[in-house]
Amino acid sequence: MGNGMNKSLFYQRTRISVPSRVPEVIWLVVCAISSPVVSASLFTCGLHRRLSGHSREPGRHSPCCKILPGLYIGNFKDARDAEQLSKNKVTHILSVHDSARPMLEGVKYLCIPAADSPSQNLTRHFKESIKFIHECRLRGEGCLVHCLAGVSRSVTLVIAYIMTVTDFGWEDALHTVRAGRSCANPNLGFQRQLQDFEKHEVHQYRQWLKEEYGESPLRDAEEARNILGKYKEQGRVESQPGARRWSSFQAVPPLAFSNYMTET
């Protein structure tokens, strides 16, 4: 198993500041143009928040979502919301999108330039991402993982992390994420990569994490089981984990694992 390091990763305390804010209407247009699937997922996520009573304040977008203690998933705007980051004690930001770069002062960044494309290889970034998230949480600090919409790329990295710190397979890890962020929907290529990770690598990653950091004080396995149990009690588990991504479109559903072809 490789060390997951790549020159495209940017990992430092940054002093770069971007004072300007992206108007929400522009951000929504960008999301819709980038992917109609992402746009529909964002609508689903927003609708769920309103039905759950988590309506936003006037002039504010929906907040980032807590997945585990000290671990959050959000979108591009969340990553620039200093007030929200401070409230959640976020000191580390893992940014994964096409133009990922540091944006705020006093925050430790891991930046991974990556497209929301089925052909994008995210597996090679799993180890560095897991290390980044875990070290932050062991310090008792908060880590935000975000992409453009907080739907696919960021969710994939968080699923890989949850699989590593628990005994969950990728489906249970996905449901654990969806319990906190209903719009979580990795694209088909990322689903396949997570299946491959479960089948071939996750056991090695768990052993590596234990050897590197010792027994974890975080009790993630117990926390995740409780979250998943409540999620299942609410009847929110789909027969096909990726089905929701396609529910609003005339398109084929996710393929079975055996139907995915290995890239050459």
Description of the molecule:
This protein has 264 residues and is of the alpha/beta class. It is 41% helix and 12% strand. It has a six-stranded mixed sheet with strand order 1-5-4-6-3-2. A hairpin with a 2-residue loop joins strand 2 and strand 3. The longest helix is centred in the first third of the chain and has 16 residues.
Labels describing this entry:
disordered N terminus, 264 residues, globular, 6 strands, protein phosphatase, disordered C terminus, protein tyrosine phosphatase activity, alpha/beta, EC 3.1.3.48
Topology overview:
Elements: E1 10-13, H1 24-34, H2 36-51, E2 65-68, E3 71-74, H3 82-87, E4 90-97, E5 108-113, H4 126-138, E6 142-146, H5 153-165, H6 170-180, H7 188-200, H8 202-213, H9 220-233
Helix pairs in contact: 1-2, 4-5, 5-6, 5-7, 5-8, 6-9
Give a quick account of the main beta sheet: strands, pairing sense, barrel closure: 6 strands, mixed
The strand order across the widest sheet is: 1-5-4-6-3-2
- Fraction of residues in helices? 40-55%
Radius of gyration: 17 Å
What is the structural class?
alpha/beta
Note the gap between the termini: 19 Å
Mean pLDDT: 79
The shape, in one word, is globular
- Uncertain segments are 2-25, 35-41, 47-61, 243-264
> How many DSSP-defined strands?
6
